[in-house]
Known about the structure:
Elements lengths: L1 E10 L3 H12 L4 E4 L15 H13 L11 H7 L5 E4 L1 E6 L15 E5 L8 E4 L1 H14 L3 E3 L3 E7 L3 E7 L2 E12 L6 H5 L13 E9 L4 H7 L14 E7 L2 E7 L4 E9 L11 H11 L1 H6 L4 E2 L7 E2 L5 E2 L4 E2 L2 E3 L1 H4 E2 L7 H17 L4 H32 L3 H7 L1 H15 L15 H17 L7 H15 L15 E2 L6
Parallel strand pairs: 1-2, 1-10, 2-7, 4-12, 5-21, 10-19
Antiparallel strand pairs: 3-6, 4-5, 8-9, 9-10, 11-14, 11-15, 11-16, 12-13, 13-14, 17-20, 18-19
Helix pairs in contact: 1-4, 1-10, 2-10, 10-11, 11-12, 11-14, 12-15, 14-15
Amino acid sequence: MAKLHFDVAIVGTGFGGSLTALILDRLGLRPVLIDRGSHPRLVLGESSTPLANMLLKSLARKYGLSRIEPLAEYGTWQREYPELTCGLKRGFSYFGHIPNQPFTPRADHANELLVEASFGPPDADTHWFRPEFDHLLVREAQAAGISFFDRTDIASLSGGEPWRLACRRGDEAFEVTCDFLIDASGEGSFLSRHLQIPFDPQPMRTSSRAVFGHFTGVELWRTLLERRGANTADHTFDCDDAALHHIFDGGWMYVLRFNNGVTSAGFLIDCQRHPMDPAISAEQEWRIWLDRYPSVAAQFSRAELTPLCGTIRRTQRLQRRARRTAGPNWAMLPLAAYTLDALHSTGNAHTLFGIERLAAIFERRLSRDGLYGALQEHERSLNAEIDLVDQIVHGCYRAFVNFDLLAAFAMFYFAGAHNSEDLRRRGQDGPGSLFLMADNPEFRRAVNECYDRLIQITADGAPPQSQVREYCDLVKRQIAPFNIAGLCDDSRHNMYPFIVPA
Length: 502
């Protein structure tokens, strides 16, 4: 049986695993990529953000990954990789729906929220068509000479000094030994399974599940709005060039468009309000949710599933969180450590934060004790970030009962993102440098106060409008020290243009 030794074994070849391997290779280490599947394949988590793009560009420049850097903006992506599918994302758009009623546009846009994230297409974000995006990064790793084993099962993991992975690829059995292990397997939960680290969803506030697919023939939402008499000229950008959110009491729907005619879409549903009914199929449940919201149904009236997706898919509760995420010679990337929810597109940026921290640790060439101390600090940072993102997402779920509440509380996500982007733009480190400022005590205090009050006033459902107005004023006051992009401005009527802080 062949025995192969590497410095670092990375299990999983989503974009996070392959990018980590490319960086470690640039640092002079010998990584190996191992995956039980193959590419291309259907993967969710497609929506990038300004913070994700900023991190991707920074990592590409720091570690000399010149072929990766163009993927950080829509304009350079289209110039350098026109054959690689992506979607134009100018920002975030949200639309509030009432059951069994068509969406009714309002002159004051009180049931809409648009937050622009770029000046125009050249510097815009993108939706990553993950079958092609992930495959590209794997090919880049192979082109760099990084060993790659796909369609490989890891039968057992033992040792630790070094690690021993008993692998089988088809009829071939071989052993990989390595000094360090990185779990980039996402929901595959490689290290959690082999090290018997339990996943405990209970500390997580959010409780949601998904019904989703990839489609062709999805109508533009802007077209439907205009048919309903909406004044889309007030929109700060085209609402379809976005992570488009359809909001309703008890959940929401994402709609992400790609330039190959494919649309990724799915309902994220509050498990407590709407537990899964095993007596109905995923396809039936998809139809039930569409029928409940007539305008959304109209958007999907001519939609057909793509061959890559095959059928409507459905999950149990999404939330999972490993009790440990790093050890003396192993670590999980964020999306192997936990799963939350797609609201506000936090996943890809958080993965890149984790990659950046781990790369910096490896770059320092620490002693054994120093390495473990740095990994423990990484674990504490990751846990603080998970806590904050979970709190913001769960608060938004509670705010779905009233669109004004959502438009107010969601500002904490945008304030956290804007400040994180600004700190990186200025090259500053220190309090606030974690994802969404998870380590800024004053920001956390403001989030905590507004979250607790939101939970209180929505305990029995939608609160009276007087409480809604008081709550919006509370958010405006608490967010003021972090409001560097003109948020919570009543004069904008929920239409926020892109602003770079001075």
